[in-house]
Amino acid sequence: MSFLVAILGAEYVLRLLPAGTHEWAKFVTPHELQGHLAAAGAPVVWTGGIGYNPLSKQWYESESTDVHYALVARKVALPDAAPPQPLR
């Protein structure tokens, strides 16, 4: 679905983006990203789908994460970790 919508649809049919913008082989699924975040100590606390209506040019919340998605992760503080240093 992501190939059909994001690449064929957005790049070639609707021409919303320049052809070649996306490389489907580099797309990351929500499940893959959740695994990477969990391994980094930042488990995902929310995942949601996002849709786009090209007629109204509006984004909307969707049930599907097949094409566009957002997620929220929270870094778990380690008990023996040093506090973060202020930016200079």
Key descriptive features of the protein:
single chain, 88 residues, alpha+beta, 3-stranded antiparallel β-sheet, 2 helices, 3 strands, elongated
Question: What summary fits the major beta sheet?
Answer: 3 strands, antiparallel
Helical amount: 25-40%
- Number of helical segments with 4 or more residues: 2
Shape: elongated
Q: Give the domain tally.
A: 1
Biggest sheet strand line-up? 2-1-3
Q: How many E-type strands?
A: 3
Radius of gyration: 17 Å
Mean pLDDT: 84
β-sheet strand percentage? 15-25%
Describe this structure in words.
The chain is of the alpha+beta class and 88 residues long. The protein has one domain. It has two helices and three strands; from the N terminus they run ααβββ. It has helices spanning 2-13, 30-39, and strands spanning 44-53, 58-62, 68-73. A three-stranded antiparallel β-sheet has the order 2-1-3. The protein is elongated. The termini are far apart. The mean pLDDT is 84.
Quick structural gist:
By secondary structure, this protein is an alpha+beta fold. It is built from 2 helices and 3 strands, in the order ααβββ. It has one domain (2-73).
Q: Topology of this protein?
A:
Elements lengths: L1 H12 L16 H10 L4 E10 L4 E5 L5 E6 L15
Antiparallel strand pairs: 1-2, 1-3
